[in-house]
Amino acid sequence: MRPPPRPGRKTGGFSLGILTLCLVAAGCLQSQGVSLYIPHSAINATVQEDILLSVDYYCHGVPTIEWKYTSNWGEQKIVEWKPGTQVNISESHKDRVCTFDNGSIQLFSVGVRDSGYYVITVTEHLGSSQFGSIVLHVSEIRYEDLHFVAVFIALLAAVAAVLISLIWVCNRCAYKFQRKRRHKLKESTTEEIELQNVEC
């Protein structure tokens, strides 16, 4: 005759099975996630500069990367691509954008209208996604600032010219003073020699 089954063993095996299943599911969810790293969330630039919007991501498989631009003038898609495939660039940014496999993009010759929020979305093939944003502020080169710099440089040049002139004048005065002193010393020496000759 078989002994009656112990209820504790079945319950323990069932709990262990559920715990294992939960751990495997958590591992799968974690491995399917997307992580995104943005080293600089704000960038300041001047007109005509080339700007790198630098990011880096990690996920399993080949994701879809999309950049959008939001400003006072509205929102528009800049570029969308999968690393290793053809890049779809919007008409507004043709010949102005360069893409990189790590998700970064470079903007060439930025203007004031390029100021705003740049949002990147990295979407994995299973549907999970991650997004981040970079704020770009583009300022004009002000001619008042250039005027101030030019005036400051001119002032420095004038001060340098005055100092050089003073040094030259001081040098000439010292040279003349030494010359006169040598001349007087020579005259006094000559007089002493003449006196010695007379006394002899």
UniProtKB/TrEMBL annotation:
GO terms for cellular component: axon; dendrite; plasma membrane. It is found in: Cell membrane; Cell projection, Axon; Cell projection, Dendrite. It comes from the Eukaryota. It is a single-pass type I membrane protein. Keywords: Cell membrane, Cell projection, Developmental protein, Glycoprotein, Membrane, Signal, Transmembrane, Transmembrane helix. The chain crosses the membrane at residues 146-170. Can homooligomerize through cis interactions within the same cell membrane. Cell adhesion-like membrane protein of the central nervous system (CNS) which modulates both the position and complexity of central neurons by altering their membrane morphology and dynamics. Involved in the formation of neuronal dendrites and protrusions including dendritic filopodia. In synaptogenesis, regulates synapse formation by altering dendritic spine morphology and actin distribution. Promotes formation of unstable neuronal spines such as thin and branched types. Regulates neuronal morphogenesis and migration during cortical development in the brain. This is V-set and transmembrane domain-containing protein 5.
